[in-house]
Design brief:
Elements: H1 10-15, H2 20-29, E1 34-41, E2 62-70, H3 100-116
Antiparallel strand pairs: 1-2
Length: 117
């Protein structure tokens, strides 16, 4: 986040109401968009690409690809058929490595989409 990282302890999270994050975001958006940098980590030969449980080694170069801004919250009743799927990428981009978790996530996201329609 361009505003900086804000963290809560486990005890602080437990003390918050169930919809805390949605309420907190709505409060923030009254003063302006929530903005984030979209950053890619540049891997090196030999880095693990087929196990998303393995952390990327420290010291890898990063490239800022762009920015994302959330300007408003749209009512939950207004939901299109779009969903995030890490397996679906634009032409010219490489898809996920041979990490089996991506295929599992793809199925989970499809189920999530079907349940919110």
């Amino acid at each position: 986040p361009k505003a900086g990282d804000l963290t809560l302890t486990d005890d602080e999270v437990k003390a918050k109401p169930p919809n805390f994050y949605a309420e907190e975001l709505a409060t923030r958006l009254r003063t302006g968009p929530a903005a984030f940098d979209l950053v890619a980590t540049i891997l090196q030969p030999g880095d693990v690409t087929n196990d998303s449980t393995v952390a990327t080694p420290d010291g890898r170069k990063e490239a800022t690809l762009g920015a994302i801004a959330i300007a408003e919250i749209i009512d939950n009743g207004i939901c299109d058929a779009g969903t995030f799927d890490p397996v679906m990428v634009p032409e010219g981009m490489a898809g996920p490595a041979d990490d089996p978790l991506f295929e599992i996530r793809s199925l989970a996201y499809a189920i999530s989409l079907s349940r919110r329609q």
